[in-house]
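Aim 2 progress update. The chain analyzed this quarter is reproduced below.
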Amino acid sequence: MNSVTSITVLAAIKSVLLAAALMLALGSCARMAPPPPGGPEDKTAPEIARSAPAHDAVNVARESDVFIEFSEPVNRPSVEASLYMSPEPGRRLRYRWSGKRLTLDYLDPLPENRTVVVTVGAQAKDMQGNPLESSQTVAFSTGDHIDRGKVEGRAQLPEGTRTLTITAYLFSDSLPDPMRDAPDYRMQTSPDGSFELGYLAPGRYRLFALDDRNLDGLWMPAGEWIGSANQDVTVSELTGPRVTFVPTEQDTSPAMFLRARQVHASMLEVRLNRDDAPMMFSVSDSAGAQTALYHVEDTTASGSWRLYLDRELFGDSAVAVAELLNGERPGLRFAVQTKPDTSRPHLRETLPGHSSAQFDFMGYPQGDYLVRVIRDANANQRFDAGSVNPFTFSEPFQWHPDTLTIRARWTADVDFLWTTVTQQ
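Predicted structure tokens:
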């Protein structure tokens, strides 16, 4: 091979090596490419950074502009839907946004000599969908004093619900109707169900907890759960009463019998479309009307009761009537059994003494448990969450503050101290 050929072959080899090196370099660059722009994912909850008037300001001019500014850009519809104001301005208010700032344009002057409360609920979110950690409040006064009354407590959240709305009604000439009357104050609970409703004017209040899905502050029976508090409360500058809630689905349709059946000559089994305990039952047959001696709940099915009569029934049919607390008197005709009662009486169930203070749960699988104690005011051996119509308070209850861990073949002891003096 002559020198010219050697130079040509060497140049070819160098070209191949250069191409290979270039490909390796490009591959290395591809592997070391920087992450896409935008930085780490935003998981920080938004919060109110500042406001005007400032929080706790007094002697605020009634013509003042009101704004709140967030720590980051927020989802505006979610903020507007979860924004609560007291006193309620109704339709005399407009929202005006500029960046992270929301200005509340009151079309009328602010109320005279009043504490004004603006609350952004825990449903408000930022642009990445991060919700507020809890409701946040700004309070100021057009007078020289800010109301400092408060109510605190806890609500049991229905499964799949992140927060509930707490509504408070100041007593006036008529009783509040949560389906029609806008509350005087409202806020959303924290994700664990706890809340502190502050800056309340002194007075007596009735409170509700509701799954306010359309965020209008009113109860819609068709699709929203509601719970009445375990008591009405009196609020002052020196008191901080505590209330508890267990919201339930509440049926506002008329009460009616689903079934009535004679089991023995003087015993009936009936079922209603309501779980509420009737005040009494009466039965009318061809011999006249009689009031049931007593009625016992049948826990195998909701709304079911056993009625024990003073005498046997006569005729071909009879009518059973239930008298409910709200004045309703549903009734149902049923067939009378003429076969004589030859069965012997026997013991069906017993109840522990009313003053029993000890409990013993056995046979539970290992795991972590929450324990709740209930004051069974009507001694029906179940928890009654209260109702709106007819209005009844829920029975008082308390959660044990600690999680109870159960291990296999171990005994765990727990003590309750009923410390809430406002729960009578």
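The chain has a mean pLDDT of 82. The chain has two helices and 27 strands. These observations will guide the mutagenesis experiments scheduled for the next reporting period.
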